[in-house]
Design goal:
This protein is mainly β and 196 residues long. Helix content is 12%, strand content 30%. The protein has one helix at 2-24, and strands at 57-62, 67-68, 73-82, 105-112, 122-123, 128-129, 139-147, 153-163, 167-168, 177-183. The strands form 2 sheets. Strands 2, 4, 5, 6, 8, 9 and 10 form a 7-stranded mixed sheet that branches. The longest helix is centred in the first third of the chain and has 23 residues, at 2-24. It is elongated and about 45 Å long. The relative contact order is 0.23. Residues 15-44 have low confidence and may be disordered.
Length: 196
């Protein structure tokens, strides 16, 4: 009887230890150190000002006509790529505590006159929102309503990105997309700046 008790005291704990060792090696979910490929979400993007290394943008094509009527409103498609090293937050990934779009990256535009002096830019309040957070090397095409100036003449239409209520990318040295546009009562002509 004593030998059975001794055997029970040794075998049962040994089996329990073996079961625990086997169970510890199994995981139902990936651990923090496991490589997991995922699309950035609002939870994975920080809501803070982007560093200078995140402000690199490569501009693609646009559908902006080269001639528009004064005061006309044109839906323009603009394609660009995140060439930086950070995810660009969308409205959902922006600062949720403020709920005003702060820190979200958005597309905007400005008009200026091509003159010999320093250009005077008139930024417009129109914005186009990212459809989701944009990771590095991803491209997106956005539609934005562009309202032409009321006065006829030659202008430069400049597309730029803004981290809302923080800064315009171009104010920190980023490239913009500049398109010469004639504002005239004549016929609109199609842009030759590539396919969005």
């Amino acid at each position: 009887m004593n030998s059975e008790r001794t055997l029970t005291r040794i075998i049962i704990p040994t089996l329990m230890v073996l079961l625990m060792i086997t169970a510890c090696g199994r995981r139902e979910r990936p651990a923090v150190f496991d490589a997991v490929t995922h699309t950035p979400t609002a939870q994975s993007v920080r809501a803070s000002p982007l560093p200078p290394s995140a402000l690199r943008v490569r501009w693609g094509g646009t559908t902006m006509p080269l001639t528009v009527a004064p005061g006309s409103n044109t839906l323009v498609l603009v394609t660009f790529t995140n060439e930086g090293d950070q995810v660009w937050p969308d409205l959902v990934a922006g600062d949720q505590s403020l709920q005003d779009g702060t820190h979200a990256v958005r597309l905007g535009y400005a008009w200026s006159r091509p003159s010999g002096g320093a250009p005077t830019r008139t930024r417009r309040p129109a914005r186009a929102d990212l459809p989701n957070a944009i990771p590095p090397q991803a491209s997106v095409t956005l539609g934005i309503g562009v309202v032409a100036p009321e006065a006829p003449g030659d202008y430069i239409l400049e597309f730029d990105l803004v981290q809302e209520l923080v800064f315009w990318f171009s104010d920190r040295g980023a490239d913009t997309l500049r398109i010469p546009v004639r504002v005239d009562h004549g016929e609109a002509t199609t842009a030759q700046t590539g396919t969005p």
